[in-house]
Predict the 3D structure of the following.
Amino acid sequence: MKRKMKILTNGIFKENPVLILVLGCCSTLAISVTVLGGLGMGLALTFVLVGSNVAISLLRKLIPNEIRIPCYVVVIAGFVTLVEMVLEAYMKSIYDSLGIFLPLIVVNCIVLGRAEMFANKNTVGDSFFDGLGMGLGYTMVIVGMAVVRELIGSGTLLGYRIIPEGYQIGIVTQTPGGFFCFACAMAMLIAGLDKKGRKFKPEIGCDGCCGNCNAECTDRKETIGK
Amino acid sequence: MSAGAKILMILFSMIFTENYVLVKFVAICPFLGVSQNFKSCIGMSGAVIFVMTLASAATYAIYHSLMVPFGLEYLSTIIFILVIAALVQFVEIVLKKYIKPLYNALGIYLPLITTNCAVLAVTLLNISNEYNFLQSCVDGFAAGVGFGLALVLFCGVRKTLERAKPPKAFEGLPITLVAAALTSMTFMGFTGMAEKLFG
């Protein structure tokens, strides 16, 4: 049980998928405009991540090594379609606010990355907790950023007005604000870890080639680097 | 609106006003990952433009000739990602065999874009925007060009950034993100221009 707890907290803090592994930035930046949307996205991704991690871990001995990435993508796409249907039927407002980023969970680096880095090497139980931890870590960051952006950008929290009309800074909810908030969050993390004496230099996960987090990727990276 | 104006509007808005990377936050990973050197920017953009145009055409054909008649619209996410994966493999094999110079230029980037969010996004948005075949292809092409433009512009910004000395906590990725914020601010200037020009 202790080991499971460790895997769980590993995803939430020590290896936070967004801030430390720097995966799946697209949806984090785009959806963290409202707290409710952020929460919806976080929970949707957590569900997909847990489901795909468990399924891939179950199938890990059956999936041939050469075509494993397409196999993972199919499993993940199945879960994403499930979430899409449920949200469209029961939570239409969240479905609309997530828009294109809901189907884009299929190519979200976190989900594919965890399938490749964790689920295909570990037992079903461990993979379950890894998926849960990573999903919660992602949710935490996206909701945290959404609180700041919604408060400053729209002056509301969960739709309730906090800052009076006319005092909000609209650009925070737009694209530049997203990049800037993410930069600040990361800088705060670096400064905080630096105080604790831990050096941390974030780099974009897998050099931007999302789903190809495999050995092939490092070869390519070297070729591209030249 | 005439068909020609509609095409021009799609072209203009996908490159400037609704630029995938800098306005819509799609494909941030390759944007931050590849923009370090100019040569790989060009290669990546070329591959993305090529694959996006082909993927738009292929998914349009499959959606309207297979999925609609059999009532399979709800499977579009799964089918499209598989089509894109297969298409990328196919293109890689064909280029390798028949068009060697193009393969040498784009080859190493092709497998990287199977899971590029922008490719899947453009195919899904083509369907939800109810574009016809030509409009879909133009949409795919223009989205690719927009991605390339953002990548090349940002590459220039990063080159200058290398000589800057930011506060210690901002060194590396955080200051790159701040630069991305400023780059995307320039694209906010295009807001509403497409409607004014072609509307």
